[in-house]
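[audit] Reproducing an earlier prediction to check determinism. Same input, same settings, fresh worker. If the tokens differ from the archived copy the diff job will pick it up downstream; this log only records the rerun itself.
[audit] input (316 residues):
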Amino acid sequence: MTPHARSAFVHAPLFFEPVPPSARLSPASADRQFEAVAQVVEQIPRIDAINVPELLDENHDGRPYYRTSDPRLYTRRIAERTGRLGIVNKVVAHLTDAEHVRRWAEETTGLGVRHAVLIGGNSRFIPYPGPPVIEANRVCEPVFARAGGGIGNVAIPQRMGEADRMLAKTKAGCSFFTTQIIYDAEPALATLVAYGERCAASAIAPAPVLLSLAPLADEADVEFVRWLGAEVPLAVEDAVLAAAELGGTAGAEASTSRAVQVYEQIRRGVAARAPRLLLGVNVEQISARHLPLVIPILEAIARALPAPAHAPSAAG
């Protein structure tokens, strides 16, 4: 196990969530995209883990249309190349039943991927075939634990009752959370403090939480992340658009500044009101065109986070 893997969940972790190549790309183009991501990871030693999303669209019936090839293969490849921990995301709602979830977990660990983030469906109104996330946690946790890994879930801070959901998922085997993309610190902080309080009342340790941060460069980005379900305050939108109008690097600088501001505000609040909660950051790329925009955010967050438990080399 690499130093990054050992410290990824014990000391202010930094994850990078890149966009895996589209299944429609040629092998040569996919290799170039992979190489560009690998070089970003290698130039920022503070990155502990690569958190690979499963990209899909749903039709009105909830049927999935996958936009990338098997993300587990990409996860294994990028982890082997960079020496970072590899984490794969899986929307378990689209698997047929709990047994299908178990087989997926066995196959995943058999591929050498020992950590996964289990995700539910997009809509609470669709009767998905797969089990709820809590049930999937109970099915998958023993499988990943036997492989020396663990499972995570996604927290949606602005959702009503989210602290209670996080507690239930923790009890069912969730060992870390990534959040939905955050542009407003207050709702996230309130949820994390409430989660810490519920864990204390239940006499269990809270799972580490990775705050998901991502760049906003223009109005199209604002519309896209809102479509994904993230909340973008109007003041943040106005600031992003004003910076974009200036041209040059102003948009990237404003995005980076906002990301660090959100992290610092939540960090200070958690330290004061939920000190047992381990806080980290998950920087999301959002789309292939955003790779240059996430680099300054990764670098700035790497400087803002407490020093890691290890002293990584440039090669990880």
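[audit] rerun output stored. Observation attached for the diff report: The chain has one domain: 3-304.
[audit] end
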